[in-house]
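Worked example 3 (structure in, sequence out).
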């Protein structure tokens, strides 16, 4: 790979991170200033989704940065896993309700995902006719 191509790739990656962080920051500021009970990062995600659909932001601008973040998602979960250790006594005491809620919510997500996928596949096959 030539240095010119490498520089262009890293430039696009940095630009993608700047765009993603700008949307997160905008969502956080709006959430804080308007006292909206929705986390700012969720608002920012909604804003970037709308911007991508509307064509304001091109997928090519953020694709490389987003792919890098998704591919390394496990690294972002390490602090949460370490934080759980602080509440190990409470978790050990309340293991049954925690386990039941995890199992039932997982089953609910799987069921909803299956139904949505089935509906979308049926819609796609109807469109082909």
């Amino acid at each position: 790979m030539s240095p010119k191509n490498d520089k262009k790739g890293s430039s696009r990656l940095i630009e993608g991170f700047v765009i993603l962080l700008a949307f997160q920051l905008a969502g956080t500021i709006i959430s804080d200033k308007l006292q909206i009970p929705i986390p700012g990062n969720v608002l920012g995600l909604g804003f970037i989704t709308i911007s991508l659909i509307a064509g304001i932001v091109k997928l090519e601008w953020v694709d490389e940065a987003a792919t890098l973040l998704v591919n390394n998602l496990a690294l972002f979960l390490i602090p949460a896993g370490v934080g759980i250790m602080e509440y190990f006594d409470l978790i050990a005491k309340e293991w049954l309700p925690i386990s039941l809620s995890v199992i039932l919510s997982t089953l609910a997500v799987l069921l909803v995902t299956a139904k949505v996928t089935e509906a979308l596949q049926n819609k796609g096959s109807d469109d082909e006719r």
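Notes: The two ends are 47 Å apart (CA to CA). Residues 85-129 form one domain.
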